[in-house]
Amino acid sequence: MKKIFSITSLCCLLLAGGGCEKFLEESSQNEVRPSTVADLEQLMTGEVYPIGTTMHNYLELLTDNVESNFYNSSMVPAFLQRWESVFTWQAEMYELLDAIGASGNPGVRIDSYEHYYTRIKGCNVILDMLDAVRGEEGDKANLCGQALGMRAWFYFMLVNLYGQPYNAPGVDPGTTPGVPLILLSGVKDELPRRAPVAEVYRQVEADLLEALPLLEAHGQGNSKYKVTDMFICTLLSRLYLYKEEWEEVERYASLGLAKNAQLSNLADYIAGAAVGTFSDGVYGLGSPEAIWYGYGTNNEHVSFDWTGFYRFATYVASTGLKTLYEYQNDPDNRMDMRYRYYYMWEATITTYPSAALTVGTKRSALATSASGSVKGMRVAELYLNRAEANARRFLLGGDDTRRTAALADLNQLRRHRYDTRNVAYQPVNITDAAALLAFCLDERRRELNFEDHRWFDLRRLGMPRLEHTIQVDAEQAPQTYVLEQGGLRYVLPIPRYVLDKNPALVPNP
What we know:
By secondary structure, the protein is mostly helical. 42% of the residues lie in helices and 7% in strands. The chain has helices at residues 7-17, 20-23, 37-48, 76-87, 93-99, 112-129, 137-162, 197-218, 229-243, 246-259, 319-322, 338-341, 379-397, 400-415, 433-448, 454-460, 496-501; strands spanning 66-68, 290-295, 315-317, 343-346, 356-360, 375-378, 466-470, 479-483. The strands form four sheets. A two-stranded antiparallel sheet has the order 1-3. Strands 2-6 form a two-stranded antiparallel sheet. Strands 4-5 form a two-stranded antiparallel ribbon. Helix 6 (112-129) packs antiparallel against helix 7 (137-162) and helix 13 (379-397) packs antiparallel against helix 14.
Protein backbone atom coordinates (compact mmCIF):
# COMPACT_ATOMS: atom_id res chain seq x y z
CA MET A 1 0.00 0.00 0.00
CA LYS A 2 1.35 3.40 -0.95
CA LYS A 3 1.72 5.78 1.97
CA ILE A 4 0.65 9.37 1.30
CA PHE A 5 1.07 11.85 4.09
CA SER A 6 -0.64 15.22 3.73
CA ILE A 7 -0.44 17.99 6.31
CA THR A 8 -4.01 19.10 5.71
CA SER A 9 -5.50 15.64 5.97
CA LEU A 10 -3.36 14.75 8.99
CA CYS A 11 -4.49 17.84 10.87
CA CYS A 12 -8.12 17.10 10.07
CA LEU A 13 -7.72 13.54 11.27
CA LEU A 14 -6.00 14.67 14.45
CA LEU A 15 -8.79 17.09 15.26
CA ALA A 16 -11.51 14.58 14.48
CA GLY A 17 -9.87 11.71 16.32
CA GLY A 18 -9.29 13.57 19.56
CA GLY A 19 -6.21 11.57 20.44
CA CYS A 20 -3.05 9.92 19.13
CA GLU A 21 -4.40 6.37 19.30
CA LYS A 22 -7.25 6.99 16.88
CA PHE A 23 -5.05 9.27 14.81
CA LEU A 24 -2.69 6.40 14.04
CA GLU A 25 -5.37 4.16 12.59
CA GLU A 26 -5.56 3.63 8.84
CA SER A 27 -8.05 5.96 7.17
CA SER A 28 -8.23 4.79 3.53
CA GLN A 29 -6.59 2.57 0.94
CA ASN A 30 -4.46 5.45 -0.31
CA GLU A 31 -3.70 7.27 2.93
CA VAL A 32 -2.30 5.98 6.21
CA ARG A 33 -1.52 7.76 9.40
CA PRO A 34 2.13 7.90 10.45
CA SER A 35 3.00 5.24 12.98
CA THR A 36 6.82 5.32 12.88
CA VAL A 37 9.48 7.98 13.06
CA ALA A 38 10.34 7.07 9.45
CA ASP A 39 6.81 8.06 8.45
CA LEU A 40 7.26 11.43 10.11
CA GLU A 41 10.62 11.87 8.40
CA GLN A 42 8.85 11.37 5.09
CA LEU A 43 6.30 13.96 6.12
CA MET A 44 9.09 16.38 7.08
CA THR A 45 10.76 15.99 3.70
CA GLY A 46 7.61 16.35 1.65
CA GLU A 47 5.57 18.91 3.57
CA VAL A 48 7.99 21.00 5.65
CA TYR A 49 11.28 21.48 3.84
CA PRO A 50 10.94 24.10 1.08
CA ILE A 51 13.71 22.74 -1.16
CA GLY A 52 13.14 23.92 -4.71
CA THR A 53 10.13 26.01 -3.65
CA THR A 54 9.64 29.70 -4.32
CA MET A 55 8.81 31.48 -1.05
CA HIS A 56 8.90 35.16 -2.06
CA ASN A 57 10.87 35.74 -5.24
CA TYR A 58 9.62 39.34 -5.27
CA LEU A 59 11.56 40.38 -2.16
CA GLU A 60 14.65 41.80 -3.88
CA LEU A 61 12.41 44.05 -6.01
CA LEU A 62 11.64 46.04 -2.86
CA THR A 63 15.30 46.91 -2.31
CA ASP A 64 17.99 49.19 -3.69
CA ASN A 65 19.64 46.18 -5.34
CA VAL A 66 17.23 46.32 -8.31
CA GLU A 67 16.31 48.96 -10.86
CA SER A 68 13.89 48.84 -13.80
CA ASN A 69 15.12 48.73 -17.38
CA PHE A 70 12.70 49.94 -20.07
CA TYR A 71 13.28 48.99 -23.68
CA ASN A 72 11.03 49.93 -26.58
CA SER A 73 9.80 46.47 -27.44
CA SER A 74 6.27 45.07 -27.56
CA MET A 75 7.23 42.39 -25.03
CA VAL A 76 8.62 44.70 -22.37
CA PRO A 77 5.53 46.47 -20.93
CA ALA A 78 3.84 43.28 -19.75
CA PHE A 79 6.91 42.17 -17.83
CA LEU A 80 7.43 45.58 -16.25
CA GLN A 81 3.74 45.83 -15.30
CA ARG A 82 3.73 42.39 -13.71
CA TRP A 83 6.03 43.47 -10.92
CA GLU A 84 5.30 47.21 -10.87
CA SER A 85 3.15 47.02 -7.72
CA VAL A 86 6.00 45.43 -5.75
CA PHE A 87 8.72 47.62 -7.23
CA THR A 88 6.72 50.73 -6.25
CA TRP A 89 5.80 49.50 -2.73
CA GLN A 90 2.02 49.48 -3.21
CA ALA A 91 -0.12 48.69 -0.16
CA GLU A 92 -2.25 46.35 -2.30
CA MET A 93 0.73 44.66 -3.94
CA TYR A 94 -0.57 41.12 -3.47
CA GLU A 95 -4.01 41.97 -4.84
CA LEU A 96 -2.49 43.86 -7.77
CA LEU A 97 -0.19 40.94 -8.56
CA ASP A 98 -3.20 38.66 -8.57
CA ALA A 99 -5.28 41.05 -10.70
CA ILE A 100 -2.60 41.31 -13.38
CA GLY A 101 -2.35 37.55 -13.55
CA ALA A 102 1.01 37.07 -11.87
CA SER A 103 -0.43 34.25 -9.76
CA GLY A 104 -0.99 32.30 -12.97
CA ASN A 105 2.70 32.39 -13.87
CA PRO A 106 4.92 29.54 -12.71
CA GLY A 107 7.29 30.50 -9.92
CA VAL A 108 5.42 33.62 -8.84
CA ARG A 109 4.61 33.49 -5.14
CA ILE A 110 1.86 35.80 -3.91
CA ASP A 111 0.65 33.56 -1.08
CA SER A 112 3.83 33.78 1.01
CA TYR A 113 1.99 34.39 4.29
CA GLU A 114 -0.26 31.35 3.96
CA HIS A 115 2.50 29.22 2.50
CA TYR A 116 4.67 29.75 5.59
CA TYR A 117 1.82 28.76 7.91
CA THR A 118 1.14 25.60 5.92
CA ARG A 119 4.70 24.49 6.58
CA ILE A 120 4.51 25.55 10.23
CA LYS A 121 1.48 23.32 10.51
CA GLY A 122 3.64 20.45 9.30
CA CYS A 123 6.24 21.17 12.00
CA ASN A 124 3.55 21.22 14.67
CA VAL A 125 2.05 17.90 13.52
CA ILE A 126 5.47 16.25 13.69
CA LEU A 127 6.28 17.69 17.12
CA ASP A 128 2.86 16.68 18.48
CA MET A 129 3.15 13.12 17.14
CA LEU A 130 6.75 12.24 18.00
CA ASP A 131 6.02 10.69 21.38
CA ALA A 132 3.31 8.44 19.93
CA VAL A 133 5.19 6.85 17.02
CA ARG A 134 7.60 3.91 17.07
CA GLY A 135 11.31 4.42 16.51
CA GLU A 136 14.72 4.92 18.07
CA GLU A 137 14.93 7.72 20.58
CA GLY A 138 17.95 9.22 18.81
CA ASP A 139 16.01 9.37 15.54
CA LYS A 140 13.13 11.04 17.34
CA ALA A 141 15.49 13.58 18.92
CA ASN A 142 17.03 14.35 15.54
CA LEU A 143 13.63 14.86 13.93
CA CYS A 144 12.50 16.99 16.86
CA GLY A 145 15.52 19.24 16.37
CA GLN A 146 14.80 19.54 12.67
CA ALA A 147 11.13 20.41 13.20
CA LEU A 148 12.01 23.00 15.87
CA GLY A 149 14.68 24.50 13.62
CA MET A 150 12.37 24.82 10.64
CA ARG A 151 9.54 26.23 12.73
CA ALA A 152 11.97 28.81 14.09
CA TRP A 153 13.10 29.75 10.60
CA PHE A 154 9.52 30.05 9.31
CA TYR A 155 8.49 32.32 12.19
CA PHE A 156 11.67 34.38 11.94
CA MET A 157 10.98 35.06 8.28
CA LEU A 158 7.28 35.77 8.90
CA VAL A 159 7.84 38.27 11.69
CA ASN A 160 10.44 40.11 9.62
CA LEU A 161 8.14 40.24 6.62
CA TYR A 162 4.92 41.27 8.35
CA GLY A 163 6.03 42.89 11.61
CA GLN A 164 8.06 45.98 12.50
CA PRO A 165 11.85 45.57 12.76
CA TYR A 166 12.85 44.51 16.27
CA ASN A 167 14.96 47.64 16.71
CA ALA A 168 12.67 50.11 14.90
CA PRO A 169 13.07 53.63 16.37
CA GLY A 170 10.19 54.59 18.65
CA VAL A 171 8.60 51.13 18.40
CA ASP A 172 8.20 48.81 21.38
CA PRO A 173 8.74 45.21 20.19
CA GLY A 174 6.85 44.08 23.27
CA THR A 175 3.62 45.60 22.04
CA THR A 176 3.83 46.13 18.27
CA PRO A 177 2.02 43.37 16.34
CA GLY A 178 4.09 40.56 14.91
CA VAL A 179 2.41 37.44 13.56
CA PRO A 180 0.16 34.79 15.14
CA LEU A 181 2.05 32.13 17.08
CA ILE A 182 0.51 28.71 16.44
CA LEU A 183 2.50 26.07 18.27
CA LEU A 184 0.13 23.08 18.31
CA SER A 185 -1.51 21.19 15.47
CA GLY A 186 -4.90 21.39 17.20
CA VAL A 187 -7.23 24.27 16.46
CA LYS A 188 -8.59 26.52 19.20
CA ASP A 189 -12.10 27.88 19.24
CA GLU A 190 -10.95 31.49 18.91
CA LEU A 191 -9.24 32.86 15.82
CA PRO A 192 -5.47 33.40 16.19
CA ARG A 193 -4.33 36.94 16.91
CA ARG A 194 -1.01 38.58 16.20
CA ALA A 195 1.57 38.08 18.93
CA PRO A 196 3.95 40.97 19.67
CA VAL A 197 7.21 41.02 17.74
CA ALA A 198 9.24 40.35 20.90
CA GLU A 199 7.14 37.29 21.76
CA VAL A 200 7.71 35.81 18.32
CA TYR A 201 11.45 36.41 18.69
CA ARG A 202 11.41 34.69 22.10
CA GLN A 203 9.71 31.67 20.59
CA VAL A 204 12.20 31.51 17.73
CA GLU A 205 15.06 31.73 20.21
CA ALA A 206 13.54 29.05 22.45
CA ASP A 207 13.03 26.65 19.55
CA LEU A 208 16.59 27.14 18.35
CA LEU A 209 18.18 26.72 21.77
CA GLU A 210 16.16 23.54 22.33
CA ALA A 211 17.10 22.20 18.91
CA LEU A 212 20.85 22.82 19.09
CA PRO A 213 21.87 20.12 21.61
CA LEU A 214 19.51 17.61 19.98
CA LEU A 215 21.16 18.08 16.60
CA GLU A 216 24.68 18.20 18.00
CA ALA A 217 24.05 14.83 19.63
CA HIS A 218 21.87 13.11 17.03
CA GLY A 219 21.92 15.05 13.76
CA GLN A 220 25.52 14.71 12.62
CA GLY A 221 24.48 12.56 9.68
CA ASN A 222 21.96 15.07 8.35
CA SER A 223 22.53 16.25 4.79
CA LYS A 224 22.63 19.90 3.80
CA TYR A 225 19.04 19.57 2.64
CA LYS A 226 18.06 19.19 6.30
CA VAL A 227 18.42 21.22 9.47
CA THR A 228 21.79 20.70 11.12
CA ASP A 229 23.59 22.18 14.10
CA MET A 230 25.27 24.57 11.62
CA PHE A 231 21.83 25.74 10.49
CA ILE A 232 20.89 26.46 14.11
CA CYS A 233 24.12 28.37 14.83
CA THR A 234 23.68 30.48 11.71
CA LEU A 235 20.08 31.37 12.46
CA LEU A 236 20.92 32.18 16.08
CA SER A 237 23.69 34.52 14.96
CA ARG A 238 21.23 36.20 12.56
CA LEU A 239 18.53 36.45 15.24
CA TYR A 240 20.91 38.21 17.64
CA LEU A 241 22.21 40.43 14.83
CA TYR A 242 18.68 41.72 14.28
CA LYS A 243 18.26 42.17 18.05
CA GLU A 244 21.63 43.96 18.28
CA GLU A 245 22.97 41.58 20.92
CA TRP A 246 26.53 41.66 19.63
CA GLU A 247 28.14 39.26 22.11
CA GLU A 248 25.59 36.57 21.26
CA VAL A 249 26.13 37.17 17.54
CA GLU A 250 29.84 36.53 18.00
CA ARG A 251 29.20 33.53 20.22
CA TYR A 252 27.03 31.60 17.77
CA ALA A 253 28.88 32.70 14.65
CA SER A 254 32.08 31.47 16.27
CA LEU A 255 30.42 28.21 17.28
CA GLY A 256 29.31 27.68 13.69
CA LEU A 257 32.73 28.54 12.26
CA ALA A 258 34.35 26.12 14.67
CA LYS A 259 32.27 23.42 12.98
CA ASN A 260 32.99 24.56 9.41
CA ALA A 261 34.94 27.63 8.31
CA GLN A 262 35.44 26.65 4.66
CA LEU A 263 34.71 29.01 1.76
CA SER A 264 34.56 28.52 -1.99
CA ASN A 265 37.61 30.03 -3.67
CA LEU A 266 36.28 31.80 -6.77
CA ALA A 267 39.74 32.09 -8.33
CA ASP A 268 39.74 28.32 -8.74
CA TYR A 269 36.88 28.52 -11.23
CA ILE A 270 38.14 31.16 -13.62
CA ALA A 271 40.18 29.11 -16.09
CA GLY A 272 38.12 28.53 -19.21
CA ALA A 273 34.87 29.57 -17.58
CA ALA A 274 32.24 31.31 -19.67
CA VAL A 275 30.83 34.66 -18.60
CA GLY A 276 28.95 34.36 -15.33
CA THR A 277 29.40 30.60 -14.95
CA PHE A 278 31.51 28.36 -12.80
CA SER A 279 31.52 24.66 -12.25
CA ASP A 280 29.87 24.53 -8.85
CA GLY A 281 28.18 27.57 -7.36
CA VAL A 282 28.16 28.57 -3.72
CA TYR A 283 24.91 26.59 -3.41
CA GLY A 284 26.12 23.69 -5.54
CA LEU A 285 26.55 20.20 -4.15
CA GLY A 286 30.32 20.63 -4.25
CA SER A 287 30.34 23.89 -2.36
CA PRO A 288 32.31 23.62 0.89
CA GLU A 289 30.49 26.63 2.34
CA ALA A 290 26.88 25.60 1.77
CA ILE A 291 25.16 25.03 5.12
CA TRP A 292 21.57 24.57 3.99
CA TYR A 293 20.15 24.06 0.51
CA GLY A 294 17.12 26.04 1.48
CA TYR A 295 14.63 27.21 -1.12
CA GLY A 296 14.19 28.97 -4.44
CA THR A 297 14.82 27.62 -7.92
CA ASN A 298 17.38 28.03 -10.67
CA ASN A 299 14.91 30.43 -12.30
CA GLU A 300 14.07 32.26 -9.09
CA HIS A 301 14.36 35.72 -10.63
CA VAL A 302 13.72 34.96 -14.31
CA SER A 303 10.03 35.81 -13.95
CA PHE A 304 10.93 39.46 -13.36
CA ASP A 305 14.11 39.47 -15.41
CA TRP A 306 13.72 38.20 -18.96
CA THR A 307 11.06 39.08 -21.51
CA GLY A 308 11.22 35.67 -23.08
CA PHE A 309 12.94 34.49 -26.27
CA TYR A 310 14.88 37.72 -26.73
CA ARG A 311 16.04 37.61 -23.11
CA PHE A 312 15.96 41.35 -22.55
CA ALA A 313 16.21 42.16 -18.86
CA THR A 314 13.37 44.32 -17.48
CA TYR A 315 14.54 44.45 -13.83
CA VAL A 316 18.28 44.40 -13.29
CA ALA A 317 20.98 44.71 -10.68
CA SER A 318 21.13 48.38 -9.71
CA THR A 319 23.95 50.74 -10.52
CA GLY A 320 24.46 51.32 -6.81
CA LEU A 321 25.04 47.61 -6.25
CA LYS A 322 27.29 47.10 -9.27
CA THR A 323 29.57 50.00 -8.38
CA LEU A 324 30.40 48.37 -5.04
CA TYR A 325 32.64 45.80 -6.74
CA GLU A 326 36.33 46.21 -7.54
CA TYR A 327 36.23 44.38 -10.84
CA GLN A 328 38.43 44.97 -13.87
CA ASN A 329 38.66 43.54 -17.36
CA ASP A 330 42.21 42.26 -16.98
CA PRO A 331 42.57 38.58 -17.92
CA ASP A 332 45.50 38.26 -15.53
CA ASN A 333 43.75 39.87 -12.57
CA ARG A 334 39.98 40.33 -12.54
CA MET A 335 40.04 41.37 -8.86
CA ASP A 336 36.60 40.81 -7.25
CA MET A 337 35.29 37.66 -8.92
CA ARG A 338 31.82 37.98 -7.40
CA TYR A 339 30.99 40.53 -10.08
CA ARG A 340 31.64 37.82 -12.65
CA TYR A 341 30.11 34.78 -10.94
CA TYR A 342 27.22 35.97 -8.76
CA TYR A 343 25.08 37.36 -11.59
CA MET A 344 23.47 36.52 -14.89
CA TRP A 345 25.04 38.17 -17.92
CA GLU A 346 23.07 39.31 -20.97
CA ALA A 347 25.20 38.30 -23.93
CA THR A 348 22.68 38.55 -26.77
CA ILE A 349 22.81 42.34 -27.18
CA THR A 350 26.58 42.71 -27.03
CA THR A 351 29.52 40.58 -26.05
CA TYR A 352 31.54 40.24 -22.90
CA PRO A 353 32.93 42.23 -21.14
CA SER A 354 30.40 44.94 -21.97
CA ALA A 355 27.45 42.57 -21.66
CA ALA A 356 24.66 43.72 -19.38
CA LEU A 357 24.92 42.47 -15.81
CA THR A 358 21.52 41.40 -14.50
CA VAL A 359 20.13 39.65 -11.47
CA GLY A 360 21.95 37.25 -9.17
CA THR A 361 22.55 33.55 -9.71
CA LYS A 362 24.64 31.59 -7.23
CA ARG A 363 23.65 28.14 -8.39
CA SER A 364 25.92 25.63 -10.06
CA ALA A 365 26.46 25.93 -13.79
CA LEU A 366 26.29 22.14 -14.04
CA ALA A 367 22.76 20.76 -13.92
CA THR A 368 24.06 17.44 -12.64
CA SER A 369 25.56 19.05 -9.55
CA ALA A 370 22.98 21.75 -8.84
CA SER A 371 21.42 21.61 -5.40
CA GLY A 372 18.05 22.76 -6.69
CA SER A 373 18.02 25.83 -4.44
CA VAL A 374 19.56 29.27 -4.77
CA LYS A 375 18.85 30.66 -1.31
CA GLY A 376 19.59 29.19 2.08
CA MET A 377 22.56 29.48 4.42
CA ARG A 378 26.28 29.73 3.76
CA VAL A 379 29.45 29.96 5.85
CA ALA A 380 30.03 33.42 4.35
CA GLU A 381 27.16 34.77 6.44
CA LEU A 382 28.82 33.61 9.66
CA TYR A 383 31.97 35.57 8.81
CA LEU A 384 29.90 38.65 7.99
CA ASN A 385 27.71 38.40 11.10
CA ARG A 386 30.74 38.10 13.36
CA ALA A 387 32.59 40.87 11.55
CA GLU A 388 29.67 43.27 11.95
CA ALA A 389 29.27 42.38 15.63
CA ASN A 390 32.95 43.12 16.27
CA ALA A 391 32.88 46.30 14.17
CA ARG A 392 29.95 47.58 16.20
CA ARG A 393 31.65 46.69 19.48
CA PHE A 394 34.74 48.56 18.29
CA LEU A 395 32.54 51.56 17.44
CA LEU A 396 30.88 51.43 20.86
CA GLY A 397 33.92 50.80 23.04
CA GLY A 398 37.07 51.50 21.03
CA ASP A 399 38.63 48.10 21.81
CA ASP A 400 41.15 47.64 19.01
CA THR A 401 41.04 43.86 19.32
CA ARG A 402 37.48 44.08 18.01
CA ARG A 403 38.69 46.05 15.00
CA THR A 404 41.37 43.50 14.14
CA ALA A 405 38.91 40.62 14.64
CA ALA A 406 36.40 42.23 12.27
CA LEU A 407 39.10 42.84 9.66
CA ALA A 408 40.37 39.27 9.99
CA ASP A 409 36.92 37.92 9.10
CA LEU A 410 36.39 40.38 6.25
CA ASN A 411 39.78 39.65 4.74
CA GLN A 412 39.33 35.90 5.07
CA LEU A 413 36.10 36.15 3.09
CA ARG A 414 37.51 38.54 0.48
CA ARG A 415 40.64 36.42 0.03
CA HIS A 416 38.35 33.70 -1.32
CA ARG A 417 36.50 36.10 -3.62
CA TYR A 418 39.39 37.86 -5.36
CA ASP A 419 41.44 36.72 -8.33
CA THR A 420 44.62 35.40 -6.73
CA ARG A 421 45.97 33.34 -9.64
CA ASN A 422 48.76 35.82 -10.40
CA VAL A 423 48.41 38.56 -7.81
CA ALA A 424 48.27 38.08 -4.06
CA TYR A 425 45.22 39.41 -2.28
CA GLN A 426 45.85 42.75 -0.59
CA PRO A 427 44.14 42.83 2.84
CA VAL A 428 42.11 45.88 3.78
CA ASN A 429 43.13 47.76 6.91
CA ILE A 430 40.66 50.32 8.25
CA THR A 431 41.33 52.22 11.47
CA ASP A 432 38.29 54.48 11.69
CA ALA A 433 35.39 52.79 13.48
CA ALA A 434 32.58 54.32 11.40
CA ALA A 435 34.42 53.57 8.16
CA LEU A 436 34.98 49.97 9.26
CA LEU A 437 31.29 49.44 9.95
CA ALA A 438 30.34 51.02 6.62
CA PHE A 439 32.80 48.77 4.80
CA CYS A 440 31.46 45.74 6.64
CA LEU A 441 27.89 46.53 5.58
CA ASP A 442 28.98 47.09 1.97
CA GLU A 443 30.77 43.75 2.04
CA ARG A 444 27.57 42.13 3.25
CA ARG A 445 25.70 43.64 0.31
CA ARG A 446 28.37 42.50 -2.16
CA GLU A 447 28.27 38.96 -0.84
CA LEU A 448 24.66 38.19 0.13
CA ASN A 449 22.66 39.98 -2.58
CA PHE A 450 19.69 38.13 -4.10
CA GLU A 451 19.56 35.72 -1.15
CA ASP A 452 16.75 37.55 0.69
CA HIS A 453 19.05 39.43 3.06
CA ARG A 454 19.02 42.96 1.68
CA TRP A 455 15.37 43.81 2.51
CA PHE A 456 15.82 42.69 6.10
CA ASP A 457 19.14 44.50 6.37
CA LEU A 458 17.55 47.74 5.16
CA ARG A 459 14.84 47.33 7.80
CA ARG A 460 17.27 46.83 10.68
CA LEU A 461 19.62 49.59 9.42
CA GLY A 462 17.13 52.39 10.00
CA MET A 463 14.78 51.86 7.03
CA PRO A 464 16.50 54.43 4.80
CA ARG A 465 14.84 56.44 2.05
CA LEU A 466 14.64 54.52 -1.25
CA GLU A 467 13.79 55.66 -4.77
CA HIS A 468 12.65 53.52 -7.69
CA THR A 469 12.12 54.91 -11.17
CA ILE A 470 10.06 53.04 -13.73
CA GLN A 471 8.86 53.56 -17.28
CA VAL A 472 6.36 50.94 -18.43
CA ASP A 473 5.75 51.93 -22.07
CA ALA A 474 7.01 54.32 -24.74
CA GLU A 475 4.18 56.80 -24.21
CA GLN A 476 4.79 57.10 -20.47
CA ALA A 477 7.49 59.31 -19.00
CA PRO A 478 9.64 57.70 -16.31
CA GLN A 479 8.02 58.01 -12.87
CA THR A 480 9.86 58.03 -9.57
CA TYR A 481 8.39 56.44 -6.45
CA VAL A 482 9.78 57.04 -2.98
CA LEU A 483 9.77 54.90 0.13
CA GLU A 484 10.50 57.48 2.80
CA GLN A 485 12.80 56.74 5.71
CA GLY A 486 10.89 54.62 8.19
CA GLY A 487 7.99 54.37 5.74
CA LEU A 488 5.02 52.12 6.43
CA ARG A 489 5.79 49.92 3.42
CA TYR A 490 8.91 48.64 5.18
CA VAL A 491 6.37 46.23 6.71
CA LEU A 492 4.63 44.13 4.07
CA PRO A 493 0.83 44.19 3.97
CA ILE A 494 -1.00 41.13 5.20
CA PRO A 495 -2.89 39.93 2.09
CA ARG A 496 -6.55 40.86 1.91
CA TYR A 497 -7.70 37.27 1.52
CA VAL A 498 -5.91 36.38 4.77
CA LEU A 499 -7.62 39.24 6.62
CA ASP A 500 -10.99 38.17 5.19
CA LYS A 501 -10.46 34.65 6.55
CA ASN A 502 -9.41 35.87 9.99
CA PRO A 503 -11.08 39.10 11.18
CA ALA A 504 -9.08 38.86 14.43
CA LEU A 505 -5.92 39.92 12.60
CA VAL A 506 -4.97 43.58 12.89
CA PRO A 507 -3.98 44.76 9.37
CA ASN A 508 -0.73 46.61 8.81
CA PRO A 509 -1.25 50.34 8.15
